Amino acid sequence: MDDLTLAIIDGFQHGLPICANPWQAIAEQLGCSEQQVLQCLQQLEQQGALSRVGPVFEHSRAGASTLAALAVPPGRIEEVAARINALPEVNHNYQREHQWNLWFVLTAPDQAHLQRVLENIRRDIDLPLLDLPMLTGYRIDLGFPLGQRSRVPV
């Protein structure tokens, strides 16, 4: 991994600039061009090493959310994952090795909207679904220090 990519990943796991042009702000902090920052991020995405850049919100202040899981037959996993991913309320989903093998997080403006989405999934996908709303929140300030001069707290 080149020095610029390492600096972007390490330096902005926390404290992503909140401004009209965060890529320019990152570039200014790192002494490079905005285009170089964008190229690094695009390369990481193309390599499958990056899936998202953006803030993580306190879900209880942004509406309603839940963790959900489906028990999907192996032959349907790709189809069902694609249908789940197509929903605007889905933040991310992932496959697990378990009877409940497709897990995803839903976020909606309010609880009524969230329940409608869950009911639509139950009806349209026609598979067992677990709704696992968070009862107690824990803040995990997760970061991965990279390089010897990392700014990420351990």
Automatic annotation (TrEMBL):
The keyword ATP-binding does not apply. Residues 64-128 form the Siroheme decarboxylase AsnC-like ligand binding domain. One of its GO terms (molecular function) is lyase activity. InterPro entries: AsnC_trans_reg2, HTH-Siroheme_Decarb, NirdL-like_HTH, WH-like_DNA-bd_sf. Keywords: DNA-binding, Lyase. Its EC number is 4.1.1.111. Pathway: Porphyrin-containing compound metabolism. It catalyses: siroheme + 2 H(+) = 12,18-didecarboxysiroheme + 2 CO2. Signal peptide: none annotated. Belongs to the Ahb/Nir family. Involved in heme d1 biosynthesis. Catalyzes the decarboxylation of siroheme into didecarboxysiroheme. Probably forms a complex composed of NirD, NirL, NirG and NirH. All proteins are required for the total conversion of siroheme to didecarboxysiroheme. This is siroheme decarboxylase.
